[in-house]
Write a structure and sequence with these properties.
Elements: H1 2-28, E1 34-38, E2 42-44, E3 50-52, E4 56-60, E5 63-67, E6 72-73, H2 91-105, H3 112-125, H4 130-143, H5 156-172
Antiparallel strand pairs: 1-4, 2-3, 3-6, 4-5
């Protein structure tokens, strides 16, 4: 009987720590006014990657933020073994994830924390629950550092390569 009681106490302790940890994390998220203005159609690229076929336009604090056409994305970089928790292809994750991926590779003057905070509000704006948005936010805060390219200059050559692939594939389909 004491083993069950100990397990219950440990579980309760974990839940309390998780609750307060999420509450503290939520208090640290800077508030941004965000919206997805124009959503690009997506083109299957390779395996689990897609290309935007038009510019995708976002409004971040009343300023335009554009992910260019032919940007290659895997949406949310969630390892396949964790897809049972949340799949990256959930429709309400798609456009926030595209913006986040692009801004991690081309941050301009934004910090990683600012990008992650904006990502959280884009998730909320697309109708994700507070719980799902916090899960994604915590994941990018914990695991995103290795994907962030600080002080990078976005090179158009990458987009050009993807554009050539898209044009070749579309010409093959008539």
């Amino acid at each position: 009987m004491s083993k069950i009681k100990n397990a219950m106490v440990i579980t309760l302790g974990i839940l309390i720590i998780t609750y307060f940890g999420c509450a503290m994390m939520f208090q640290e998220i800077e508030t941004y006014e965000v919206d997805v203005i124009e959503k690009s159609p997506l083109f299957p690229y390779q395996e689990y990657d897609y290309l935007t076929t038009e510019d995708t336009i976002y409004n971040i604090n009343k300023e335009s933020s554009v992910v260019p056409a032919f940007y290659r994305t895997d949406f949310a970089s969630i390892p396949k073994v964790l897809w049972f928790i949340d799949a990256p292809y959930k429709s309400s994750f798609v456009y926030p994830s595209i913006w986040h991926d692009y801004n991690y590779s081309c941050p301009e003057k934004r910090t990683r924390k600012e990008i992650d905070d904006m990502f959280f509000w884009l998730l909320r704006n697309e109708g994700n629950s507070l719980y799902s948005s916090l899960k994604m936010y915590i994941a990018v805060r914990i695991f995103g550092r290795s994907h962030f390219t600080e002080n990078s200059v976005c090179e158009e050559i990458v987009v050009q390569k993807e554009k050539e692939y898209y044009n070749k594939e579309n010409s093959n389909h008539g």
